[in-house]
Write a structure and sequence with these properties.
This protein is an all-alpha fold and about 500 residues long. The protein has one domain (about 25-510): Up-down Bundle (Amino acid/polyamine transporter I), CATH 1.20.1740.10. Helix content is about 70%, strand content about 0%. It is built from 18 helices and 2 strands. The chain has helices spanning about 25-35, 40-55, 60-80, 90-100, 100-135, 145-160, 160-190, 210-220, 235-265, 270-280, 285-290, 295-330, 345-365, 375-410, 420-440, 445, 455-480, 480-485; strands spanning about 15, 340. A two-stranded antiparallel ribbon has the order 1-2. α1 packs across α12 (about 295-330) and α11 (about 285-290) runs antiparallel to α12 (about 295-330). The protein starts with 12 loop residues before the first strand and ends in a 26-residue tail after the last helix.
């Protein structure tokens, strides 16, 4: 698709252009990565839920253990990102390491997983915003209206220059870090049972229920790998992506571990499980209201909503860039590879993701009418089902990518040590595979089912079936579109009349 570049039409698209180059530095990348992990959302929602469901105090240790696994993953992942620059990230890495068909399977798995994470967040965002409006302004707004308002904001930023999203996210993430730090400080000052090390004791982690703890906690990290998705827009991708990924993973792991320990100390180790079960996601705000004042609690609630908004923007950007990457190479319809002629944003991919979100939000709005779940319907269905399914898919994808990294460096060691090429990726693959199995085994617990639920089979089944469908589509392309198949993972657009020869890999050298 070719269009003009009239100054009066900023919505013009071009299929021949690429994303905005040399835009994002390491700080911007770190903020984009951390935004997807949503620190305040994790502390307010994820941590109390984990304490309540598992009954274990060892939640801080879970973050440290998972942090080690993900740092090991980042060793090979970072080395790979320094060699292959592609907005499709997982797609390009798996295609290079394991083959084109597997690359397409990975891309479809990434698309459904990121979409599930992003769209699921609208459930809790809509609920949180509507609840705040009713409690503080006495304005009654259905959750889906609030969700659609958030969707409009995210959609507008999605079709704008990526540095605008990065600046908005930087402000939101900074504010949520500040409020979490305030919670930590208040917790350590209050400490009704003293500054206890009990939540850090190994016996509080290595106990029956450890699988559920790890399954709940891994979702807090999802999005840490998203730096590579911005590789085509980074100022120095070969250095910025690995550096930003390591900084983000390390910071998130330590921050989550410290904050979950501090919250347990603030409430009291003997009370944190029962308090979490009683208050759920409101625990942090109830705690702040009791010990810091209502105003501080209200500020924290507002920033909880903006934390969710930041995560929505980050995951939206990830989906849009996957659509762009696959459309550019004609693996999916080429119009998905169209970008803004002025701002080089992945406009078609962004609009497609927004359209999917609208359809599902409206579907759940209709199905939730008069539900016995009441106001919590979007949280217990849209958010819980989709977010956990998305985390399940992304952990599986991380495992596959670790194997692809090993395969890539076996073919070309790139001067890397055995630690980077084999040892770290192998340990990461084993650790991630174990977490994947634990998530599958505990999926009924993750979605809040009191017993075996068909959803515990259906939701993971949909994720895995989508990846399998991608493999089938790859075989269809191999047979019917060898020209497209030849360029899978290359990062290059297929133009009319191109010969069906496999293009060279796009590396960081190609960016200079």
């Amino acid at each position: 698709m070719t269009t003009g570049t009239s100054a009066t039409n900023r919505a013009h698209l071009t299929s021949s252009g690429g994303l905005d180059r040399r835009t994002l530095g390491v700080p911007a990348l770190v903020f984009l990565i951390v935004a997807a992990s949503a620190p305040l959302t994790v502390l307010a929602g994820g941590v109390p839920s984990t304490f309540a469901v598992t009954g274990l105090l060892g939640v801080p240790l879970a973050f440290l253990v998972l942090g080690v696994i993900l740092v090991l993953f980042a060793v090979g992942y970072g080395a790979m990102s320094a060699r292959i620059t592609n907005a499709g990230a997982f797609y390009a890495y798996v295609a290079d390491g394991l083959g084109p068909r597997q690359g397409i399977g990975a891309s479809w798995l990434a698309l459904i997983s990121y979409n599930a994470m992003q769209i699921g967040l609208y459930g809790i965002f809509g609920f949180a915003l509507s609840s705040l409006l009713e409690a503080r302004l006495e304005i009654s707004v259905p959750w889906w209206v609030s969700a659609l308002v958030g969707l409009i904001v995210v959609g507008v930023l999605g079709v704008s220059r990526v540095d605008l999203s990065a600046k908005v996210i930087a402000v939101l993430v900074t504010l949520e870090f500040l409020v979490v730090i305030v919670v930590d400080v208040v917790s350590l000052v209050v400490a009704p049972e003293g500054t206890s090390a009990l939540p850090l004791m190994p016996n509080e982690f290595f106990a029956p229920g450890i699988g559920a703890v790890l399954s709940f906690s891994i979702a807090a990290f999802m999005g840490f790998e998203s730096g590579a998705i911005y590789s085509e827009e980074a100022k120095d991708p070969s250095r910025a992506i690995p550096k930003a990924t390591f900084i983000a993973v390390t910071a998130i792991s330590l921050f989550y571990a410290f904050s979950s320990w501090a919250l347990a100390v603030g409430v009291g180790p003997s009370q944190i499980v029962s308090a979490s079960a009683e208050n759920g996601p409101d625990l942090v705000f109830v705690f702040l209201a009791q010990h810091g004042g209502v105003l501080l609690a209200d500020i924290a609630q507002v920033l909880f909503i903006t934390s969710l908004l930041a995560a929505l923007i980050a995951f939206h950007n990830a989906v849009a860039r996957y659509f762009f990457s696959l459309g550019r190479e004609s693996v999916l319809p080429r119009w998905l590879g169209a970008v803004g002629a002025r701002n080089h944003a992945p406009v078609s991919g962004s609009l497609t993701q927004s359209a999917l979100a609208v359809v599902l939000v409206v579907t759940f709005a209709i199905s939730g009418q008069n539900s016995e779940l009441g106001p919590l319907f979007p949280v217990l269905t849209l958010f819980t089902w989709f977010a956990n399914a998305g985390a399940f898919g992304l952990v599986f994808l991380l495992t596959i990518t670790s194997v692809a990294v090993i395969a890539h460096f076996r073919r070309d060691n790139g001067g890397q040590s055995a630690w980077v090429r084999v040892v770290a990726p192998s340990l990461a693959a084993l650790g991630l595979a174990a977490v994947f199995v634990l998530i599958l085994a505990n999926f009924d617990v993750l979605i809040g089912s009191e017993g075996p639920s068909p959803l515990a089979v259906v939701m993971p089944g949909i994720i895995l079936a989508t990846g399998a469908a991608g493999l089938v589509w790859g075989e269809i392309l191999r047979r019917r579109r060898p020209d497209v198949f030849a360029g899978i993972g290359s990062g290059k657009a297929l133009e009319e009349g191109d010969a069906p020869a496999r293009p060279a890999r796009v590396t960081s050298l190609d960016q200079s």
